[in-house]
Amino acid sequence: MITNTDTKTAFIAIVGLPNVGKSTLLNKLLGEKIAAVSKKPQTTRTRITGILTKEEKQYVFLDTPGIHRPRTKLGDMMIKEIGTAIADVSCVLFLTEPDGKITETEKNLLLRFKKEKQNIILIVNKTDDCKKGMILTTIDVFSTFAKEEGIEFASVIPISAATGDGVEIIFDELEPFMAPGDWYFTSDMITDLPEKKIAEEIIREKILRLLDDEVPHGTAVIIEDFKDIKGHLIDIRAEIFCEKDSHKGIIIGKNGAMLKKIGSYAREDMEAFFNTKVNLNLWVKVKENWRDDQGYLNQMGFKLK
Q1: What string of H, E and C letters represents the secondary structure of 122-172?
Q2: CA–CA separation, 97 vs 19, rounded Å?
Q3: Rounded to the nearest 5 degrees, what angle is found at the Cα of 17, between the Cα atoms of 195 and 162?
Q4: Other Cβ atoms closer than 10 A to 7
Q5: 54 near 9, Cβ under 8 Å?
Q6: Higher per-residue confidence, 68 vs 271
Q7: Smallest Cα–Cα separation from 23: which of 208, 298, 251?
Q8: How many CB atoms lie within 10 A of CB 87?
Q9: Can you give the pLDDT at residue 36?
Q10: Rounded to the nearest 5°, which phi and psi values hold at 31?
């Protein structure tokens, strides 16, 4: 904890349905890519902490898994992660899409925030990919529900996390929630994730992006070996787990082409993030129904923080 009488801190949870752009927004706010992003829902599995220090202010963003109905033990743990993330935050950034409607899940979530007396900023994301009228309709639908239920939004901000349009406004609207006090992280930190976990996230993102709908969410990445060799090279051995032999074949690809592409793209991102050369070795293994195996989930690091 950094002690300074002039410092301020705010803890901000980023919450919403799957695939509304929470991780994209986190990366844009930080100016660094630390959270996996893909078009697939539920890309984020655990709470990811992003830290941004600007002059005397420190913003601690908590990216959460998308709100969904859990079908596996892993899904249940993802939902519990959301509960721990919003417990004591200064403010919630509630993301939605400009589709002109509010779902029952979103209503229930807003009612929960009201009960817990959370400060809520409504973020209408993906404004670069819709008609202006739909943005206004979405804001009106959410505002009507909020008024009926006695919920007050601290502010409403239309943005495009993908292009960055409107994102800077978020910092202005977070100003009232900055509390004087000590920083919890050093000013040069951008996340509290271990380097191994960052490497796992990078590899998993490449799998999701390159394979799109060919392989479902039954994949996980575990870094078995992570060696920093004299500060000039990071040597990494990673294992990719999937649930079926057919999925293993897809991940490897013909003559290993897909696995090579995953490794090449992942290594490129790692070298940019770690600012050093990376030697990456990938292996693919089958573990049936690992998402419902609590012992295996623990081994893979899926534990509530």
Answers
A1: EEECCHHHCCHHHHHHHHHHHHHHHHHHCCCEEEEEECECCCCECHHHHHH
A2: 9
A3: 65
A4: 19
A5: no
A6: 271
A7: 208
A8: 11
A9: 59
A10: 75, 10
Length of the chain as a residue count:
305
DSSP class of 42: T
> To 10 degrees, what angle do helices 257-274 and 245-252 make?
70
DSSP output for 80-107? HHHHHHTTT-SEEEEEE-SSS---HHHH
Structure-block tokens of residue 123: 């973020």
Q: What's the pLDDT at 213?
A: 65
Q: Which of 55, 48, 53 is nearest to 26 (CA)?
A: 48
Cα–Cα distance between 39 and 234 in angstroms, integer?
29
Residue type at 1?
A: M
User: Contact 53/129 with Cβ under 8 angstroms?
Assistant: no
Q: What is the mean pLDDT of residues 32-52?
A: 64
φ/ψ of residue 158, rounded to 5: -80, 130
**Nearest to 95, CA basis, from 73, 131, 66, 116:** 66
Most confident of 23-37, 76-90, 232-246: 232-246
Higher pLDDT, 152 or 133: 152
Residue linked to tokens 């990938």: 282
- Residue 136 phi, psi (nearest 5): -65, -40
Question: CB-side exposure of 92: number of CA atoms within 13 Å?
Answer: 26
Q: 25 in helix, strand or coil?
A: helix
Closest CA relative to residue 205, chosen from 273, 254, 304: 273
Average pLDDT over residues 122-130: 91
User: Per residue in 241-278, is it b (16+ CB within 10 Å) or e — as a string?
Assistant: bbbeeebbeebbeeeeebbeebbebbbebbeebbeeeb
Q: Which of 65-79, 106-120, 175-189, 289-303 has the lowest mean pLDDT?
A: 65-79
Q: Is pLDDT above 70 for 28? A: yes
